[in-house]
Amino acid sequence: MLTLEMAIQKIQQLPIEQRNKVIEFIEFLEFQSNQRQKEDLAHKEQSTQELFKLAGIWKGRNITIESIRSEAWGDRQ
């Protein structure tokens, strides 16, 4: 028997008051999960917007991988 089926059977055997508490707890968990998903989506959208704010910051400048490495590492290459 599946774990979910076992859980359902056990919940069905509980007195009505305890069943209602289990249902309330499940609804609470579902609410928390939905809130977390919304927060994650908002964070992802914000990160994407911040990335695009940087687009073009080196436009018109003579920047190469070599010049970046040279500035970061100096003569140690």
Automatic annotation (TrEMBL):
Residues 8-64 form the DUF2281 domain. InterPro entries: DUF2281. Pfam families: DUF2281 (PF10047). This is DUF2281 domain-containing protein.
